[in-house]
Design brief:
The complex is a heterodimer of chains A (232) and B (498).
Chain A (H helix, E strand, L loop, with lengths): L1 E12 L2 E12 L3 E5 L6 H12 L3 E4 L11 H6 L8 H9 L3 H13 L15 H14 L4 E5 L7 H14 L2 E5 L3 H7 L2 E6 L2 E7 L5 H5 L3 H5 L11
Parallel strand pairs in A: 3-6, 3-7, 4-5, 5-6
Antiparallel strand pairs in A: 1-2, 7-8
Helix pairs in contact in A: 4-5
Chain B lengths: L12 H19 L12 H13 L9 H29 L4 H12 L2 H12 L3 H25 L4 H5 L6 H34 L8 H10 L3 H16 L1 H4 L5 H11 L8 H11 L3 H4 L6 H6 L4 H26 L10 H16 L2 H12 L3 H25 L10 H35 L7 H10 L3 H25 L13
Helix pairs in contact in B: 1-16, 2-10, 3-6, 3-8, 3-12, 4-6, 4-22, 5-6, 5-21, 6-8, 9-10, 9-18, 16-19, 16-20, 17-19, 18-19, 19-20, 20-22, 21-22
Classes of the chains: A alpha/beta (232), B mainly alpha (498).
């Protein structure tokens, strides 16, 4: 079943085109990994997918987008901010809603944030913040998961566990990431972008690590040994 | 081989700023002969010695009931700031959208707290309403502007991460306000410190705050008492973070209500008459536009007063620049020994905590009524304030080359990095300096404030109000000019510099 089709569309911000003449069809029921260097156009593509799938897609943005001064509870609650009236939201800032509190506590326990629900996000580590951002996306309770590098600040083992949790909940997900092994082992389909062009679109089973590393020609060609991508 | 460039030739940013600054200093030097800088008193040093003695040997015991004055000073500052913030916050939300709101805010903050006090004094007498309105109204304008600037810098990522369909209020409360709360709170705190100074100054127009007792003690030569009152004021400012703690504030606000007073009986008819009739020129009210010419001509010394105000503001700005350049190393970790630095810091804090009007008043008693005491006061206060902020900025920098002599550190390592910021601070202060220049007229210096004060004294409210409008217009104009002059590339992350 087709989820979404781009038929030779120019994507970008305002007048600046990042992805010219993009043609792509996404299917429901697939886990899709989006690979490519920083600046290749992953965020632009995800932003457009998010816009078209609203209000069906949960969203985990790049760089977390959390509010440091608020507690973990309030940050996760923000996933469902649109479900309540302004007055109810205002009240919740002063006195958390019981039902949401319990749901969010369970979610935090599941994602390895036990006992941190009251803590302000500014006092969390990078990895913990990453989990809060994922928890907020899950709390939206929507059918499709969209993530822009949702595992950027956790180690490979944690990334694997978080990904398994996400895929257990969602039949359909589209995730931008840099972990090539994870892309090969846990996704159905891999889309590669380079410099605003779609250079790779294949089932994960047909691909090898070497093919994926070719998406990062700058890193391969470097002589100083500083490799941009760290395949895991 | 190319020839080395001549003096001040080149287009590096540092040289550009140097040329601009030198032009400003040159302009000031050219106009300096026009200023009245006489020393009128016979023996200023003896006077200074007596004051210093009073400061060193304060006589706390001869103060009559200082607690009441302290409580009133703090109460007025607290509620003035609080009401100002309450009025300013909603204005900040529409500040960038409405030209009318921006103009209104520019107008109310262009008039100094003390002039507002003089205006309200005519209607509400020596009452708490006069004191609170004098602080709250200009502060509403300032809060609106600064809050709006802070809100503009809210990080966008959290709001962008929200699902679609979130209502405006929830978005603001969850994904915007918490991100800037600290900055808003720290600016409000700084403004409260300013309000403490302003509240003291309200004593100069007769409200019984600390300034009232300070003025009379100085005027009558009771320097021991004056010294004691000054120590109390510095003590209040120095311990502010302790007694003004976040948790204590609600209780302080409630307690302050009991100290505020007296509350006036407002006669609605009189108030209306004042606003609709007394403030406006009689020919204008009669619809006689031709009559405005003679009315304007009857205002004494209008142009010299404007000229003096602008000249003193220029002198004050240039003086602050030179003093800031001299003083900032005193408080910076890059220079001197720890004990010297502690002394330097203390000096800068004392100079910046003392209200200019107070400094000017002290110099006036020493030197007699000319522009000299006003100039000294403006330059010392603002120079110290800028030096303090620059020193703090310098302490955040690490020098690239170790082992340079002090002059090399100053001129090559630090000043080039600090100067754009210093100049930007100075441009922000230029508006404040002009506002205070007008105010210093109340001490007898022939700036606009002198004529405003005397017009109120002679009950010529229409003239006083007209001069207030001129003062406000000058302020807005100078603000616009200094905005143009200010180095653009430095973001001033510290709103407390304004």
């Amino acid at each position: 079943m087709s989820l979404l089709t781009f038929d030779s569309v120019d994507l970008g911000h305002g007048a600046q085109v990042v992805l010219p003449a993009l043609s792509l069809t996404l299917e429901a029921g697939q886990h899709v990994a989006l690979l490519g260097q920083s600046g290749a156009g992953k965020s632009t593509l995800l932003g457009e997918i998010r816009r078209r799938l609203e209000p069906r897609a949960a969203w985990c943005p790049q760089g977390h987008g959390l509010v440091p001064l608020l507690s973990v509870y309030h940050n996760v609650y923000m996933g469902r901010l649109a479900h309540y009236s302004a007055l109810a939201n205002l009240r919740n800032l002063l006195k958390p809603r019981r039902a949401d509190w319990q749901a969010i506590e369970a979610l935090c326990d599941e994602l390895g944030l036990e006992g941190l629900i009251r803590r302000p996000v500014e006092r969390l580590s990078g990895g913990q913040r990453q989990r809060v951002a994922i928890a907020r996306a899950l709390h939206q309770q929507r059918g499709i998961f969209l993530g822009d590098e949702p595992f950027a600040s956790v180690d490979p083992h944690q990334a694997l566990r978080l990904l398994e949790r996400i895929q257990a909940r969602y039949a359909t997900s589209i995730v931008a990431l840099h972990q090539h092994r994870l892309a090969l082992s846990h996704f159905d389909r891999i889309i590669g972008l380079h410099d605003g062009r779609l250079v790779l679109d294949a089932a994960a089973g047909e691909l090898t690590l070497a093919r994926l590393d070719a998406l990062y020609p700058d890193a391969a060609g470097r002589s100083d040994g500083s490799v941009v991508n760290i395949p895991t | 081989m190319s020839a080395a460039p001549g003096w001040l030739r080149g287009d590096s940013p540092g040289l550009t700023l140097t040329r601009r600054s030198l032009a400003l200093i040159l302009l000031c030097l050219l106009l300096l002969p026009l200023a009245d800088l006489r020393i009128v008193t016979a023996d200023p040093w003896a006077e200074l010695a007596r004051m210093a003695l009073g400061f060193v040997r304060p006589s706390f015991l001869s103060l009559e009931n200082p607690l009441h004055a302290i409580a009133l000073t703090v109460s007025v500052a607290l509620w003035g700031t609080f009401i100002g913030a309450l009025l300013g916050f909603p204005l900040a939300l529409i500040f960038h959208r409405s030209r009318l709101v921006r103009a209104f805010c520019a107008f109310v903050r262009a008039i100094h707290e003390l002039f507002w006090a003089l205006l309200f004094l005519q209607v509400f007498g020596l009452s708490a309403v006069t004191a609170l309105a004098a602080l709250a109204i200009p502060y509403a304008g300032i809060f609106a502007k600064v809050y709006a600037e802070i809100l503009e810098l809210t990080p966008r990522a959290p709001a962008a991460a929200l699902p679609a369909g979130v209502d405006r209020l929830s978005r603001f409360l969850y994904a915007e306000l918490p991100l800037v709360w600290d900055r808003l709170a720290s600016y409000t705190r700084y403004r409260f410190e300013c309000a403490m100074r302003a509240s003291v100054l309200l004593g100069f127009v007769g409200l019984p705050t600390l300034g009232f007792y300070l003025e009379s003690a100085f005027r009558e030569g009771r320097f021991g008492e004056a010294g004691a009152l000054l120590w109390i004021f510095y003590g209040l400012i120095a311990t502010l973070h302790w007694w003004g703690h976040r948790r204590l504030l609600p209780w302080l606000l409630i307690a302050a209500l009991f100290w505020l007073g007296p509350w006036p009986d407002v006669d609605g008819g009189l108030l209306w008459r004042f606003v609709s009739h007394d403030l406006w020129p009689a020919p204008l009210l009669a619809g006689d536009l031709a009559g405005m010419g003679p009315w304007l001509a009857a205002i004494p010394d209008l142009l010299p007063a404007i000229g003096n105000t602008l000249l003193l503001a220029l002198m004050g700005t240039v003086g602050s620049l030179l003093l800031a350049l001299l003083l900032w190393p005193l408080a910076s970790r890059h220079f001197g020994r720890p004990w010297q630095r502690a002394g330097g810091k203390l000096l800068l804090i004392v100079l910046r905590s003392t209200p200019e009007l107070m400094l000017a008043f002290i110099f006036l008693l020493m030197l007699g009524p000319s522009m000299l005491p006003a100039w000294l006061a403006l330059a010392l206060h603002n120079g110290a304030l800028i030096a303090f902020l620059v020193a703090r900025h310098a302490d955040g920098l690490t020098t690239g080359m170790a082992g340079l002599p002090a002059s090399g550190r100053y001129a090559y390592e630090l000043l080039p990095r600090l100067y754009p910021n210093l100049l930007a601070l100075l441009c922000y202060r230029a508006e404040v300096i002009l506002r205070e220049t007008a105010l210093l007229g109340m001490l007898g210096v022939a700036t606009l404030g002198f004529y405003i004060d005397s017009s109120f004294e002679y009950l010529m409210f229409d003239v006083a109000f007209f001069l207030l409008l001129i003062t406000a217009a000058l302020n807005i104009a100078v603000d616009a000019i200094s905005r143009r002059f200010r180095p653009r590339e430095v973001p001033l992350d510290d709103p407390c510099s304004r």
